[in-house]
Design brief:
Elements: H1 12-24, H2 31-37, E1 40-42, E2 48-50, E3 56-59, H3 76-86, E4 89-94, E5 97-101, E6 108-112, E7 117-120, H4 126-140, E8 145-149, H5 167-171, E9 176-179, H6 182-189, H7 194-204, E10 237-239, E11 245-248, E12 251-257, E13 267-271, E14 276-278, H8 301-315, E15 321-323, E16 330-331, H9 333-358, H10 364-370, H11 375-378, H12 390-402, H13 417-427, H14 431-443, H15 447-460, H16 465-481, H17 485-500, H18 512-517, H19 520-528, H20 533-536, E17 541-547, E18 553-558, E19 561-565, E20 576-580, H21 582-589, H22 595-598, E21 605-608, H23 611-618
Parallel strand pairs: 7-8, 8-9, 9-10, 14-15, 17-20
Antiparallel strand pairs: 1-4, 2-3, 4-5, 5-6, 6-7, 11-12, 12-13, 13-14, 15-16, 17-18, 18-19, 20-21
Length: 632
């Protein structure tokens, strides 16, 4: 079992909290343990999944330590969830429907057709998806992939598609299905704020932490993210309405669109011939995120609950099993109805009660502390906050309706963190005085307060060794106590960075396929958000792109703002006009070719001063994938 020599044991307060959880939670309910193993057919002989260079991108054996009894350094509820998520192999869901689970953060589902197999959500990377397909074929025969479906626009549900399908397959007519709006959201989420999201995702999934009882034990929704080759084959068959039916290789599907739920573009699938319902990521065995800790647009729990209710109305009477792209299925009509009803009530309750308290004048922090879930929901394992949490989801609802400002004018114009920290520490008598009192709070088990107050010392003096050490120790204890997998990973990664320095961004998301899938308008937007405004205040440049295979576009940099237009107007007279193909333009916008090389390309014609383009590009800044989080 992995153990870092600089970690600490669990504090008595954490141990006591874990004993209370063992006493109060329904550990005698073993249905999930049985369901998670139901239909097991086998797993891969080699636990290591490698890329073409031999680098390991996924280790099936990394979480073997979870078979042991829960240690003091892990919340027993999260330990139970992680053990369930770590089960790996091929599982039969029902006749003709199979899942590969535990080969990545998500599941890959395979539905057998008349002559091949229909693949749903091919994991994060090509290597894990290929390994999953190989495992399926080793048990069910070498069936060709006759269709692929992405249930929604998150990377762990499409990134591995090149492990199961090729460009040639698509050209030969193999359909790739997705909900309306999929491509726009799939690429924009991973590009516009992709650097910051990926950096924070390193915290969320604990990518740099050792696997073990004092390190990363899972992320609640699955264990962690794979690190292989991310790709994307754009869909060629779009699902545009609820009730739409499609048949691929004899597999009949009825769709329910659920936009704005767990993803901006998402759908559920009913398989009437199998009496099976795929819930995508709209109903899994945990409370999901309304605002993921890596960052995203706030999700709408009101709409989420409504679509879960609609799924019950549409399909419950003709379903014997419900499965999702994470976790394990639910079997039996009565159990499916109960599961979906409780999931519906979970999101509706969070929405409605946050709004009730919000309208009584409570702030987001106050609501998060006072929110109590109904006992009937609290007794159901699948409503627990292993991935989302009641605390940060209540704050997300508040943010959705009222934004960051809580209405108190004292919070309207606060100092930035470093300036505020220096003042706090000075007011509190200096760093040494703060640390003396914080150590007593640590001894008392008040780790939340230690983290809150010592954060000021770290931001006032980031090189203060004693402050960093105490902050790391307190974050570690909060990690040990967390039922939520992503909270644990955030706390422990924060401790790791305070002790060892930043870990960067172990897994990026904006691969070549995603960048290639950006529309030209999205590419122009992506360039505009990289303009270093202050450096460009006094820069006035206009570049016209005369495309040989599309409408001409004019980019104009003024007042630190980069705009584009397809209209010819007097104020867009160019400093330089470049006639070129769209592929050449994409190479320029993606930084694959500079102005000097561009003018030498065959078919490119330049009129005016090419130096204007050089000036424009020089005003762009590069994103930082290793920015500080727990230090200034």
């Amino acid at each position: 079992m992995a153990r870092s020599t600089d970690t600490r044991p669990a504090h008595p307060a954490i141990v006591d909290a874990h004993r209370a959880a063992l006493r109060d939670l329904p550990f005698d309910d073993t249905r999930d343990l049985e369901d998670a193993r139901r239909g097991f057919m086998g797993t891969a002989e080699d636990p290591l999944i490698r890329d073409a260079t031999g680098r390991t991108v996924w280790d099936l054996g990394a979480y073997g330590f979870l078979d042991q009894d829960c240690p003091d350094t892990a919340n027993p509820s999260l330990w139970r969830q992680s053990r369930l998520c770590a089960d790996h192999g091929l599982f039969q869901v029902t006749d003709g429907v199979y899942q590969v689970r535990g080969f990545d953060l998500s599941n890959m589902t395979l539905v057998e057709g008349d002559r091949g197999v229909f693949v749903i959500d091919p994991l994060i990377c090509a290597e894990t998806a290929a390994a999953g397909l190989a495992l399926y074929r080793s048990h069910r025969g070498d069936r060709p992939v006759t269709g692929v479906l992405y249930t929604h626009s998150h990377l762990d549900h499409f990134g591995g598609v090149r492990g199961v399908l090729t460009d040639e397959d698509v050209a030969a007519g193999v359909p790739v299905l997705a909900p309306q709006g999929f491509l726009e959201h799939a690429v924009s989420e991973n590009v516009y704020a992709g650097t910051a999201m990926s950096r924070r995702a390193a915290y969320m999934y604990g990518a740099a932490l050792p696997r073990g009882e004092r390190g990363q034990i899972g992320a609640g929704l699955g264990q962690t993210t794979s690190t292989g080759t991310v790709g994307l084959l754009p869909p060629n068959l779009e699902i545009t309405r609820t009730g739409q039916t499609e048949t691929v290789d004899g597999v009949r599907m009825v769709f329910q669109l659920t936009p704005g739920t767990e993803a901006p573009a998402e759908l559920n699938i009913h398989f009437p011939d199998h009496r099976a319902l795929c819930m995508a990521e709209n109903a899994t065995h945990n409370l999901h995120n309304l605002l993921t800790l890596r960052g995203a647009v706030v999700r709408d729990p009101r709409v989420w609950a409504r679509y879960l209710g609609e799924a019950l109305d549409l399909f419950a009477a003709s379903v014997d099993v419900a499965f999702a792209s994470h976790h394990w299925p639910v079997w039996g009509g009565e159990q499916v109805v109960r599961f979906l009803s409780e999931q519906r009530d979970l999101y509706a309750y969070l929405h409605d009660q946050t709004l009730r308290m919000l309208n009584q004048g409570l702030t987001a922090l106050e609501i998060a502390e006072r929110m109590e879930m109904p006992p009937a929901l609290e007794r159901a394992w699948h409503t627990h906050g292993y991935y989302g949490s009641v605390s940060h989801n209540a704050k997300a609802v508040y943010q959705r309706y009222l934004g960051w400002f809580d209405g108190n004018p004292a919070h309207l114009w606060e100092h930035e963190p470093v300036a505020a920290a220096q003042r706090y520490v000075r007011f509190m008598g200096g760093a040494d005085a703060v640390l003396r009192q914080a150590r007593q709070s640590f001894a008392d088990g008040d780790f939340r307060w230690v983290v809150q107050v010592v954060d000021h010392v770290v931001f006032a003096d980031p090189d203060h060794a004693e402050a960093r050490a105490l902050q790391a120790d307190a974050l570690e204890q909060l990690g040990y106590g967390s039922e939520n997998g992503t909270w644990r990973n955030f706390f422990l990664t924060g401790a790791h960075e305070l002790r060892h320095g930043t870990v960067g961004t172990p897994t990026g998301s904006a691969g070549p396929d995603l960048l290639a899938a950006l529309t030209l308008d999205q590419l122009f937007d992506a360039l505009a958000i990289r303009v270093d405004g202050p450096r460009a205040w006094d820069t006035a440049v206009t570049v016209r792109w005369d495309l040989t295979d599309a409408e001409p576009v004019t980019q104009r940099l003024r007042n630190g703002v980069l705009t584009c237009t397809r209209a010819r107007t007097a104020d867009t007279e160019p400093d330089v006009t470049v006639a070129l193909a769209e592929t050449d333009l994409r190479d320029v916008l993606l930084g694959l070719v500079g102005p000097a090389e561009l003018v030498r390309r065959e078919g490119v014609r330049v009129t005016g001063d090419i130096g204007a383009l050089t000036t424009l590009l020089s005003r762009l800044s590069e994103p930082d994938d290793d920015f500080a989080i727990v230090t200034p």
